[in-house]
């Protein structure tokens, strides 16, 4: 059965990721489609990615990656990017992270919360050996799902000053292998490539290949399906 289109009965989305560049590895193409259609999209980053650049001290890498993320977001029509400033590499799924995420959800008041795949591996079930997903991705994703409920509950984190928000209609989790829902991103491929290319210093450390070439390969890998359709896939949960 082919994936269904994403629902359209929402106006404001909050995209939550662990690190700068996580959103650009696929989700940004969908963001470009949404903002072009008049949707309001905000970004929330749990860390500044300060531990992600080999040979670059965290004190230098953090501000650099933050600025790259803000430029990257602007390419796809996102003007508000918030950083929670948790420590890169050691996110823990638990009350501390959930509290900060719940507070952010209350501040941004989204109709839909979006996050990336947070399963244990990047490889489809049954495939071995598998690529292990980042510990930060796994911790963040579970905490995002839990924080949506926390944001609407007045008793879980009663010290939060933000008024509770129970208006999240959908939680959308990125899924590449067998997504029940999809966004057609054929018209947004070039924007997605340009968005990822803004992570220039980061990508230059990963490969000697030109940044734009790396970005195009990533976007192709994350959006091009076997039947030639450009899509970003999601699995939806009720908020």
* Share of helix, binned: 25-40%
The CATH first-level class comes to: Alpha Beta
* Low-confidence runs: none
CATH fold-level assignment: Rossmann fold
Largest sheet: spatial strand order: 1-7-8-6-5-2-3-4
Label the CATH architecture: 3-Layer(aba) Sandwich
Number of helices: 7
The strand count comes to 8
Tell me the series of helices and strands, N- to C-terminal: EEHEHEHEHEEHHHE
Number of structurally distinct domains? 1
Give the N-to-C terminal Cα separation: 25 Å
Protein name: N-acetylglucosaminyl deacetylase, LmbE family
Keywords: Zinc
InterPro entries: GlcNAc_PI_deacetylase-related, LmbE-like_dom_sf
GO molecular function, one term: hydrolase activity, acting on carbon-nitrogen (but not peptide) bonds, in linear amides
Characterise the protein shown here.
It holds the Pfam family PIG-L. GO terms for molecular function: hydrolase activity, acting on carbon-nitrogen (but not peptide) bonds, in linear amides. InterPro entries: GlcNAc_PI_deacetylase-related, LmbE-like_dom_sf. With 239 residues, the chain is α/β, with parallel strands linked by helices. The protein has a single domain (4-238), classed as Rossmann fold (3-Layer(aba) Sandwich), CATH 3.40.50. Helices cover 37% and strands 18% of the residues. It contains seven helices and eight strands. The chain has helices spanning 27-36, 58-75, 95-108, 135-151, 189-197, 200-206, 211-223, and strands at residues 4-5, 12-17, 40-47, 81-86, 112-115, 170-174, 181-184, 231-238. Strands 1-7-8-6-5-2-3-4 form an eight-stranded mixed β-sheet, sandwiched between helices. Strand 5 (112-115), helix 4 (135-151) and strand 6 form a beta-alpha-beta unit. It is globular, with a radius of gyration of 17 Å.
């Amino acid at each position: 059965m082919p994936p269904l289109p994403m629902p359209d009965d929402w106006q404001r989305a909050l995209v939550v990721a662990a690190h700068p560049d996580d959103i650009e590895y696929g989700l940004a193409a969908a963001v470009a489609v949404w903002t072009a259609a008049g949707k309001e999209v905000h970004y929330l980053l749990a860390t500044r990615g300060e531990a992600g650049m080999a040979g670059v001290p965290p004190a230098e890498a953090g501000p650099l990656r933050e600025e790259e993320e803000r430029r990257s977001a602007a390419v796809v029509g996102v003007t508000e990017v918030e950083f929670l400033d948790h420590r890169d590499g050691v996110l823990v799924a638990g009350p501390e992270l959930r509290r900060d995420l719940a507070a952010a959800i209350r501040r941004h008041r989204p109709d839909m919360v979006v996050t990336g795949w947070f399963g244990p591996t990047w490889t489809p079930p049954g495939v071995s050996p598998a690529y292990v997903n980042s510990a930060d991705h796994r911790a963040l994703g579970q905490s995002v799902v839990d924080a949506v409920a926390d944001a609407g509950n007045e008793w879980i984190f009663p010290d939060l000053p933000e008024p509770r928000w129970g208006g999240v209609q959908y939680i959308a989790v990125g899924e590449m292998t067998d997504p029940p829902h999809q966004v057609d991103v054929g018209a947004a491929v070039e924007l997605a490539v340009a968005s990822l290319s803004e992570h220039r210093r980061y990508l230059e450390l990963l490969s000697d290949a030109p940044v734009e070439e790396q970005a195009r390969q990533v976007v192709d890998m994350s959006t091009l399906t076997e039947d030639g359709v450009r899509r970003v896939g999601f699995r939806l949960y009720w908020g």
